Amino acid sequence: MSHSGSSLLARFFDRPILLLVLTTIFWGGNTIAGRLAIGEVSPMAVVLLRWIGVTGLLLVLYGRQMQAEWPTLRRHLPLLIATSVCGFTGFNALFYIAAHGTTAVNLGIIQGSMPMFVLLGALVILRSPIRPLQAAGVVVTMAGVAFIAAQGDLSRLAGLQVNIGDALMIVACVLYSLYAVLLRKRPQVSAMVFFTFLAVIAAITSLPLFAIEVAQGTLQWPTPKGWLVIAYIAIFPSFLSQIFFMRGVELVGPGRAGVFINLVPIFSSLLAVGLLGEPFHLYHAAALGLVLIGIALSERKPRKIAPIG
Asked: How far is residue 259 from each of residues 68, 146, 161, 295, 296, measured CA to CA in Å?
């Protein structure tokens, strides 16, 4: 690479806002990819091929480093397997199945509620206390998710008339919250080695799900369009987004970087309407507003009381 090319790349990686916005656009695009995959490739084929692709890219770049840090990784093998199964294999399997039963708009808005699921997961598993404002944020966000699941008619919840795709996406968010909680116990290895090893585990643990799809006779090998969808998923929301987000966290810290995740449901909705022509109803706007207000409430820092005297 020329000197001008390398300096341009260096400047790019020194722009945290650009990196974090691109990350959330790519993650929002994953909901579109999930919908575009329908009829082009079956869900478990997407999951397996996605992680094989990501693993191949990562092993080329970080394989030697992972080998050097293997003694530390080996000591935490059960934790690493649980982390990968929840956040990579399980979440994605449910995500792509859910895409067959609901809209990209719904997928994006429900996915946007994940910070609240993480907060609840930390409370249940780690006994992390929740401040009153955070509790209010949880209630408001969950109201938004309920509004989506009920398609704007809360009386549907009383009769348990919830779209199966929305229900699966909610379960996927629960799995992701377990993943986020387990991340707090991650071993002391470099971030990219950690990501590489989780991707390897995800590729391996996707095989039984793929085998079930084969046994059920529901496997659909990718069409040419299906391969393009998988390539997008592997390169953008899986590979580049992780690198961009980690660099963003490095530059501005996890707190400020985490706020950008709130853009995912907004970009998902815009992309779904613009690219797929999906309808955006009033209840979508209300649910999106509730989710964003809830997250804003939960992220408000408590006011520090000045000492007297």
From this structure: 34, 22, 33, 9, 9
Distance CA 119, CA 129 (A): 9
| Amino acid letter for position 92 | N
DSSP state of 47: H
Q: Which tokens hold the place of 26?
A: 């790519």
pTM: 0.82
Phi-psi group of 15: left, alpha or beta (phi > 0 → left; psi -120 to 50 → alpha; rest → beta): beta
| Three-class DSSP labels, 207-268 | HHHHHHHHHHCCCCCCCHHHHHHHHHHHHHHHHHHHHHHHHHHHHHCHHHHHHHHHHHHHHH
| 153-210 pLDDT, tens digit each | 666 655 556 678 888 988 998 898 888 888 888 888 888 899 999 999 999 999 999 9
pLDDT, position 3: 59
Of the two residues 305 and 7, the one the predictor is more confident about is 7
Cβ contact 199:58 at 8 Å: yes
